[in-house]
Amino acid sequence: MIHSKIGTAAALTALLAAAHPARAQADLQGVWAIAKPTPALLTNAGTLPPLTKAGLDIYQQNQAALAKGDRRSWDPVAKCKPPGEPRTYTEMNWPFELFQSKNRIDFLFQWNRLDRAIPVLAKQIDDPDEPFYFGQSVAQWEGKTLKVEVENIKPNTFLDDAGLPHSDNLTIVETWRLRDPDTLVGTFHFVDPTIYSSAWDATMIFKRQPAGTRIKEDSCTDRTHSNDYATIDNSIVR
Amino acid sequence: MKFERWPSVPAALWLGLAIAMNTGMDAIIQPVQAQVSPATEADISAANPAFQGLLRGQRTTIDTSRNRLPRGGPPGGPRGALIPNPSHDPRDFSGNWIGGGGGGAPGMKVAEKRPGWVATTTLDGQRMLFVDLGVAPSGGHIYQNQDELVIVRPTELRARRIYFTDKHTQGALPTYNGDSIGHWDGNTLVVDTVAIKGMIAKLDNDLEHGLHHLLMARPSLHVVERITKSPDGQSLTDVETWEDPASGKPPVVTTTVLHYAADTPAYDSEYEDGGDLFGPGYGTGFK
User: Fold this and answer.
1) Global pTM?
2) Contact B280, B126 (CB under 8 A)
3) Residue B116's closest chain A neighbor by CA?
4) What is chain A's pLDDT, residue by residue, as a tens digit (238 residues)?
């Protein structure tokens, strides 16, 4: 009997240790924005990512459309769809607020009120068949670095504003860590054999926003198509 | 979804576990300003070898096949088995909460019985966002720190912020969530919201003529909520008073009860595409 209790206590201690990584985690919370405009995502070496022929064809089509001022024909963002992963981070003047708890991380973007919710070491959803704008992510802490694996990202999204494509084979391994209290570093390791001839890496730097910075409510549809909407002054039916 | 317990574990040990975990939760719910130092050499040495280069600022590659994280949850265990019980601190609302029904904005009955409320008509293809106040019957994940309480939910207005301050934002423009400020009255969070816009409820669809009849917020709409946690920490009760002085009618009081949920799937809002059926942003209205 006593052995049973000792065993139970030992099991609980182990459970506590496993379930209590909080003290080893970094506190990434706060309001952040990317440090410099990133309209086109480049590799860490400063080069265009290694596109395959299929990838280059799509990219050049998008570039040609952009040169004509045409974004709506190919870019879901022009229709207020979520920019996807990791493009949402690249928008200047659109801060995001990061919250974390023991079992969950949330990136709350100002842009159209988007939320990227990441479970920490837990299954996210039972049916993985449907792709998502931010993909399906799962995270764990490696010391004070948050590691996030992402897959199942909607293939109609793009990696940056310039139209860098990806396929449904894309996986991203991200790391998030503090370089200093006011600097958040995100690294992105892209693997997509359909669109890229080899894996490639990119890094984004985010700066902590001044104390008191609030994330404002943004409705993309109101902002870009305000004339499409009924207002409170419309006809009153009674 | 209910939280499953292990009945063979003595209650005292569970209590100890809960206290320890809540202490850990407290540690992680630090003020936003709290910070840590950059990784030290000891941190780097202790890290997964795949990340040591990254931590030193070097470019590296990660073999995703070798480093895959488990996606199945705790092997053999119930989903969310490692997620702690809710805090017993009556002022700590953090965690996952799911709706128990009831509450929310005044709906069709209000519009029918209180003609002073504003109703409007919009054409099919137009899109209006709902006012999304209250803790919301659909529930959500609550984060809380000294500055704000944030309700994150998998619906269109994904995050609602309640700032712990005593003054509304001066000149706040109307938003779908409004301008919400909160203070504690004992252990009850009192939330005052003004500057609200949007659709309070969808009253009726006239599909033949492509019309929607909507109950709308007016600039004079004022909502006061009193949110209280139950003594066992397992539920939140939000009593919402919806008042529109311009209507000349008495306030409407609704009540929402949320229950603590050990685990709630976190994923993109499907409204982004589900709305394709309904209007702009999502189909015909944007072409």
Assistant:
1) 0.73
2) yes
3) A238
4) 445 554 554 444 444 444 444 456 899 999 999 998 888 999 999 999 999 999 999 999 999 999 999 888 888 888 778 889 999 998 767 899 999 988 889 999 998 888 898 888 755 545 556 788 888 888 889 999 999 999 889 888 999 999 999 999 999 999 999 999 999 999 999 999 999 999 999 999 999 999 999 998 887 777 765 433 322 222 222 2
Answer whether B13 sits within 8 Å of A103, measured CB to CB.
no
Instruction: Select from B5, B30, B82, B155 the residue whose CB has the most chain A CBs within 10 Å, as the one to mutate to test that interface.
Output: B82
Taking phi over 0 as left and psi of -120 to 50 as alpha, with beta for the rest, A63 belongs to alpha
**pLDDT per residue over B204-216, tens digit each?**
666 666 666 667 7
Is the four-CA dihedral B233, B30, B79, B161 of positive or negative sign? positive
- Joined together, the tokens standing for residue B77 give 């265990």
Q: Tell me the three state secondary structure of residue A77.
A: helix
Cβ contacts of residue B148 below 8 Å, gap of 6+?
Answer: B161, B162, B163, B164
Place of tokens 């919402």: B240
pLDDT, tens digit, 9 for 90 and up, residues B66-120: 334 444 333 333 333 334 567 889 999 998 887 755 555 555 445 444 556 666 6
- Between CA B220 and CA B149 the distance in angstroms is 24
Domains and CATH numbers, chain A: 25-120+129-210 (2.40.128.20)
Provide the terminal-to-terminal Cα distance of chain B, rounded to the nearest Å: 40
Nearest to A113 among B33, B157, B219 (CB): B157
Contact between A184 and A176 (Cβ < 8 Å): yes
**Domains of chain B: which residue ranges?**
95-286
Round to whole Å and give the CA distance between B230 and B226.
Answer: 13
**Interacting residues of A118 by C-beta distance below 8 A, sequence separation 6+:** A104, A105, A106, A107, A137, A138, A139, A148, B266
Among residues B182, B237, B174, B226, which one has the least CA distance to residue B200? B174
The CATH code that applies to domain B95-286 is 2.40.128.20
> Cα separation of B95 and A212, whole Å?
24
From the candidates A228, A235, A236, which should be mutated to test the interface with B, based on the most B CB atoms within 10 A? A228
Q: CA dihedral in degrees (A29, A31, A37, A43; nearest 10)?
A: 10
| ipTM for this prediction | 0.81
Q: Is A132 within 8 Å of A154 (Cβ atoms)?
A: yes
Closest CA to A204 of A76, A85, A30: A85
Q: Decide: residue B131, CB within 10 A, 0-12 exposed, 13-18 middle, 19+ buried.
A: buried
What are the CA-CA distances from residue B47 to residues A101, A142, A191, A214, B40 (Å)? 21, 6, 23, 34, 11
Rounded (5°) CA angle B268-B189-B242: 80
The two three-digit tokens of residue B165, written as one number: 């301050």
> How would you label A181-203 residue by residue, b for 16+ Cβ within 10 Å and e otherwise?
eeebbbbbbbbbeebbeebbbbe
